[in-house]
Amino acid sequence: MKFEEFQKSLDASSPPPHLSGYLQSLWYDAKGNWNRSHEIIQDIEDKTAAWIHAYLHRKEGDIGNADYWYRRADKKRPGVTSDEEWETIVKELL
Predict the structure, then answer these.
(1) Closest to 67 in 3D by CA, of 88, 91, 51, 47
(2) What is the pTM of this model?
(3) Which of 6, 23, 42, 86 has fewest C-beta within 10 Å?
(4) Interior angle at CA 20, CA 16 and CA 22, nearest 5
(5) Quick one: what percent of the chain has pLDDT higher than 90?
């Protein structure tokens, strides 16, 4: 799937069935369902999930918690908008 296709899938009421948990989480976040996005990602324990977890808490405004998750992901909080970070993560995972 290409980024443009992923973006177009946001017009649907549910994510494409073949998406990884990571991309499902980001899909729900883009749809405005932060809670569902967080539920999905909090059950995955690896560095990629930690990055998405960090992004979600940064978007939420909980910077202390976000920084904890960035450290778990071996990343630093980026100096870009949350929308730009979302796009970066999605493109890396596709």
Answers:
(1) 51
(2) 0.95
(3) 42
(4) 115
(5) 100
